[in-house]
Specification:
about 625 residues, Heat Shock Protein 90, Ribosomal Protein S5, domain 2, formyl-coa transferase, domain 3, 3 domains, about 25% strand
Length: about 625
């Protein structure tokens, strides 16, 4: 007696539904993609209880003809491909012909649809794969599909659905990505009778604002490049809006939302010099390429794809992202307040009284140590109101000459007991001549350099600025194979197994490019004669463990490890917060700013800008 059975269509449809319809999220995805394929420019998505109770998709697309309504619910029934050759040139989001059949086999489905040429629309109910009778209804062109009681006939599947709020969250995340992937379609998304999103279809930037808000759109960089028939466009985020996971990364290929770890990792590598540890970049990137250069027929959920020219695509992404980051402005700004009734920020109200340890710094001579003048200086103490301006200038000049003729303290402001202020005009003229573009005001908290330029006050973190300069210098030396070496006082011997020894011997050029000098000994031993200058001696074993554990992609991983170590090394070597700098050192740091991105290697900002108008608002000088 035969033990092999041919399953009937109801059982096979339920099995197929397990792949296509995993959760309410899957139903929404399949139905909305059908609406997009039908050329709809208005789509309404409505869910109840996380889609478990009800899912409704209404569109104004081309509709389904009456004779095709039942056929649309048959397994492998599709209007999007006709021959096997079409699989190599798929331009629609759906093509397998499995979605409606799978959904209707595990839910109660009602469809209403009308084409442009029909006078009335057609209705049909399908419950657990069983067809009802066709009916007619008055409606506009388009299609509405309602899915009720998902998995009503498969209690085991329904039992393992998560809480309605969790399912709702996954659907919302999907809808957000659908809105981003189709910026010219008007979407309305309704949750339990309340509108969550209602977009105008006015473009990607507008949709990003709708979903992520004002703070995000103010910190995104546009990407738009085309090469050899491949167009890459969209937006990437500045490091300040980086996230703790990859949830805020959206990749769209030929209008299809996809997941591709290869591209995501490539972008992450570009960001490695811009982000703090364990942070991931924000991006919404769209790639348009010839349809025969990508395979979307990988998995039933159609979110996994394979590229024909992977190396070229990686280069396209990394070059575009790197160029946008390098040309970005990373200066953080304090925005002007928009309401007259807003209070002065607490950080301004709570300024502590300046003491002898926290004042304005200036340089007494090129070689002398930096001294400080605080607001309780002897000159200020001797001022009386009304004061003699000529006498004040004379006193100031004598004090400056006593310190050094090279002193270049910019605006020396003296406050009298009557709250009057006075600027030494003769000294101000000499400063304007020597530093016409920017004036160094001083240093506060022995950490932040203050610079005035074009009605703006800039605060520069001396540690972060120096750290970036050092890191870029060392990083460039690694890329150019010009790393400085340090000879070991005592040569270090490392014993390897046969496989590791042969591997190192074959790839000794890579080690030498990183700054190592080695000698091969008998018994699978390696003598380390010199190491890169920026590598701590105590980390030699750690580096070689890392190097040998990544045999297949050593050339990239070795440099990645080395760059991570460079971050730590540059951080240790950079001037510290609280370290006093001479004016010449401060000027050198400022001169270096335009050569580097304004973020430290860990992703912290280097410069904060405050507009004069904002300061005047805080002091209620302007409204």
């Amino acid at each position: 007696m035969s033990k092999i059975n041919i399953l009937d269509k109801f059982i096979s449809n339920r099995i197929s539904a397990g792949e296509v319809v995993e959760r309410p999220f899957s139903v929404v995805k399949e139905l909305v993609e059908n609406s997009i394929d039908a050329k709809a420019d208005k789509i309404v998505i409505s869910i109840e209880e996380g889609g478990i109770k009800s899912i409704s998709i209404l569109d104004n697309g081309s509709g389904i003809e009456k004779d095709d309504i039942k056929l649309a619910f048959m397994p492998h029934a599709t209007s999007k491909i006709k021959s096997v050759e079409d699989l190599d040139n798929i331009f629609t989001l759906g093509f397998r012909g499995e979605a409606l059949a799978s959904i209707s086999s595990v839910a109660q489905v009602e469809i209403m649809s009308k084409t442009e040429g029909d006078e009335l629309g057609t209705t049909l109910k399908v419950e657990g794969g069983q067809f009802g009778e066709l009916g007619e209804i008055a409606m506009n062109r388009g299609t509405k599909i309602t899915v009720n009681n998902l998995f009503f006939n498969t209690p085991a599947r329904r039992k393992f659905l998560r809480k309605s709020k969790t399912e709702e969250g996954d659907i919302t995340d999907l809808v957000e990505k659908l809105i981003l992937a189709n910026p010219n379609i008007q979407f309305r998304y309704i949750i339990d009778g309340k509108i969550k999103y209602d977009t105008a279809g006015s473009g990607l930037y507008s949709n990003i604002y709708t979903i992520y808000g004002k703070d995000t759109v103010e910190n995104i960089l546009e990407i738009n490049t085309e090469r050899e028939g491949y167009r890459l466009w969209g937006y990437i985020g500045k490091p300040e809006i980086s996230k703790a996971n990859r949830t805020y990364q959206t990749l769209i290929v030929n209008g299809r939302i996809v997941k591709n770890s290869f591209i995501s990792n490539a972008i992450q590598e570009v960001y490695q010099n811009f982000l703090m540890k364990n942070k991931f970049p924000f991006f919404i990137l769209c790639l348009n390429l010839p349809y025969d250069c990508v395979d979307v027929n990988v998995h039933p959920n159609k979110m996994e794809i394979k590229f024909d020219n992977l190396g070229f695509i990686r280069t396209l992404f990394t070059n575009a992202v790197y160029s946008a980051l390098m040309n970005a402005n990373f200066t953080r700004s304090v925005e002007c307040e928009k309401s007259q009734d807003e209070e002065i920020p607490k950080e301004i109200i709570n300024l502590q009284k300046i003491n002898k340890e926290e004042g304005i710094s200036y340089n007494t001579s090129q070689n002398a140590s930096l001294q400080e003048i605080n607001l309780q200086s002897s000159i200020v103490d001797n001022l009386k109101y009304p004061f003699d301006a000529e006498k004040l200038n004379e006193d100031l000049q004598q004090k400056l000459e006593a310190n050094s003729e090279e002193s270049r303290l910019t605006d020396y402001v003296l406050n009298s007991k009557k709250n009057k202020s006075y600027i030494a005009s003769q000294y101000q003229e000499s400063i304007d001549d020597s530093l016409p573009k920017a004036k160094i005001i001083g240093v506060i908290f022995k950490t932040y350099i203050l610079v005035e330029k074009e009605d703006c006050l800039y605060m520069i973190d001396q540690h972060a600025s120096h750290e970036r300069a050092l890191y870029d210098k060392y990083s460039n030396s690694v890329e150019a194979n010009e790393v400085l070496k340090q000879n070991l006082l005592t040569n270090k011997i490392i014993t390897l197994n046969g496989l590791e020894y042969d591997f190192v011997k074959r790839n000794v050029d890579t080690l030498e490019g990183l700054g190592f000098e080695v000698e091969f000994l008998d018994n699978n031993s390696l003598k380390i004669i010199a190491v890169p200058y920026m590598l701590e001696i105590g980390k030699i074993d750690e580096f070689f463990d890392y190097f040998l554990n990544n045999l297949q992609d050593y050339s990239e991983k070795g440099k990645d490890y080395f760059k991570t170590d460079l971050m730590q090394h540059s951080c240790k070597m950079a001037v510290k917060s609280g370290q006093i700098l001479s004016l010449n050192e401060i000027e050198k740091l400022i001169d270096e700013l335009d050569k580097h991105i304004l973020l430290c290697p860990h992703g912290r900002p280097i410069v904060v800008k405050i507009d004069k108008k904002q300061i005047e608002k805080w002091f209620k000088r302007v409204l």
